[in-house]
Amino acid sequence: MARKTGSHSEITGPRVRAEAQRLFARHGFAAVSMRQIAAAVGVQAGALYLYTPDKETLLFQLLETHMKELLAAWQAEPRGQGPLEALEAFVRFHIRYNGERPEVVFLSYMELRNLGPENFAAIEALRRAYETELETILKAGQAAGMILVPDTKLATMAIIAMLTGVNTWFREGGRLGRAAVEDIYWDMVRKAVGA
Amino acid sequence: MARKTGSHSEITGPRVRAEAQRLFARHGFAAVSMRQIAAAVGVQAGALYLYTPDKETLLFQLLETHMKELLAAWQAEPRGQGPLEALEAFVRFHIRYNGERPEVVFLSYMELRNLGPENFAAIEALRRAYETELETILKAGQAAGMILVPDTKLATMAIIAMLTGVNTWFREGGRLGRAAVEDIYWDMVRKAVGA
DNA sequence: GTCTATACACCGATAGAC
DNA sequence: GTCTATCGGTGTATAGAC
């Protein structure tokens, strides 16, 4: 039975976050009003404040959830024994995982400046933790003589930028499928680190 | 003699663009008001409309000017004879040129969605022209057997993403100087394309 | 839990005086 | 060329009814 009003807390909360994510990604955080989010959810603007104390916190929770899930997913990702296998796993994981959720990945790179200092620092710390995962692999490979890069920190940043860039041009149904893109990027990364 | 009012057209126009660029880069296009820009310039909000028909056009002109200057600067850049020398010139040029104007480069990547369809298309065309410059080099190198990449288009996107990413972490006075960064990235790019 | 109504500030853009 | 004043609209967030 449809009804216009009533208790929907368990449904509305996730819907608010989903619509906010979609709209923020599409138009930008500052360009989206709470009224627009409410309209997309199908409630009045005031009702949003049952689920978030304010607009910035809504953004922060989207980003924090994403970063924590990203780290957890990488921890759970199967990877081989050596540094080279780990590097290949990272490359394929990053392309695949980010490719599956372009909206929130986009937000994570574009809307950090709309966070206050504490919230910003919290997301930055999670991002650094993720970068450290890759740098640790590169250092191990370097130590084992299986990788040769001039600087592991710069190689880390270069590889992540390169992989994240896939989201800016990849389109489902385009010339290349996801698997082919993974293969090609792994080939370039492997060569770039002298493996 | 200082005076509060008078004719300053030749000075105010550039100042409006400079302050808009600074504020847009710092806070985001949608988050900056015309009143803020006016205050930074030292005029009243209404006076801005002597220099731009509206806010979006102000953004567009910043981006268009930047992209045209980027293309012109690359055309004027000295480069060697072969594809490998041209690739090295491109890598070093991109890092150096973008590193010198981080604000407008940031805008060019972040604020495209605030343009209307025609303005968006115009900037996209300029960006594609720049990407084509690199892809042409890669194709020539591939044809000459001096470069081996699985896909020149993907290699183009990967290299540009990787190089542009430098701006996200590079800080003047950090561990590495600009020249060292150029050297390191050129080393990684050279290896990535199998040269 | 959601609604209606609203407080209060700010928005982009324009008109007309000087 | 710049100012002051202002239009019509929208912003986030809250109060109180149900």
From TrEMBL, chains A, B:
The keyword Membrane does not apply. SUPFAM superfamilies: Homeodomain-like, Tetracyclin repressor-like, C-terminal domain. Residues 33-52 bind DNA. Keywords: DNA-binding, Transcription, Transcription regulation. InterPro entries: Homeodomain-like_sf (IPR009057), HTH-type_TetR-like_transc_reg (IPR050109), HTH_TetR (IPR001647), KstR2_TetR_C (IPR041490), Tet_transcr_reg_TetR-rel_C_sf (IPR036271). Residues 10-70 form the HTH tetR-type domain. Pfam families: TetR_C_24, TetR_N. It comes from the Bacteria. Signal peptide: none annotated. The keyword Transcription regulation applies. One of its GO terms (molecular function) is DNA-binding transcription factor activity. PANTHER family: HTH-TYPE TRANSCRIPTIONAL REGULATOR BETI (PTHR30055:SF234), HTH-TYPE TRANSCRIPTIONAL REGULATOR RUTR (PTHR30055). This is TetR family transcriptional regulator.
